[in-house]
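We treat protein structure as text, and this decision shapes the records that our systems exchange. Because each token names a local backbone shape, the row as a whole describes the fold. For reference, a complete record is included directly beneath this paragraph.
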Amino acid sequence: MDALTAVLRETRFESVGYRWLQLDAPFSLDFDQHELRGVHALTRGSCDLVVDGTTHELVAGDVVLLPRGDGHVIRSRGSSGCGEVRSPDCTILCGAFLVRETEHPVLRALPHVIKIQVAQAPSVGQLVGALGTEAEDGSPGSEIVMARLSDALVVQALRHHAQRGADAGWLGGLTDPHIAPVLGAIHHDPARQWTVGELAGVARLSRARFSARFTARVGQPAMQYVTAVRMQRARTMLRDENATVASVAGRVGYGSEVAFASAFKRVTGQNPGHYRRTRGDHPEASG
């Protein structure tokens, strides 16, 4: 399984809904996202997207994803007020997707804003067109169709952004011929007793070249990344499964409960038993 597929499954990625907005300047719309991740496709006109004080200019044909759930504002150029809708100067297809695993380490490694021009990514443009038709049509079953189209849109947008190679970070690692198979191997079997030497073998590089390349592409050392993936799996098991802490320790690659508890507390700030009692589906259970 490739790393992008694995991560989307691990985060329990799920699309929500879409709607058309036809806006007449001046306008300003606030989106307080958090659990939801915004998707916006501008099909007519221009506007500004403001995220954490940074303004991104959008024009027709731009598609933006906010994969880290940042609150944001979409507003007319140089405007902060709302106007009545008459003849639209700006038409936007607005949607969102949800990730159930909000603490997944890869989410924190993604850019705050991913912007794509459909002229450079025809497959993204085709999906936007199909989504827009479904959002406008509202025929029976359209919610299911939109969810599937949105899944494809998000994946295509992430893939296109990765292929452009614009960013260091996790997406950049997906297109590196040496690092991508390593990411896939780690996500496929995080409990394996990985060493830098073994991972370098997967990458077909020397230990020194692999270590430097992985850190440069992904933004953290390889063994630190292995630990982060293990702890994410552990959080999911502790929260959602009726398993003991000792069982979880073995399933994520630790030979003892003590070693696992130490690593878990170092990464999350809590011991696993406390996390399980306060965050799990079985609050009465103890480690």
Observations:
- The chain has two domains: 3-162, 176-279.
- Residues 142-164 form the longest helix (23 residues).
- Residues 3-162 form a domain with the Jelly Rolls fold (CATH 2.60.120.280).
- The longest strand covers residues 13-23.
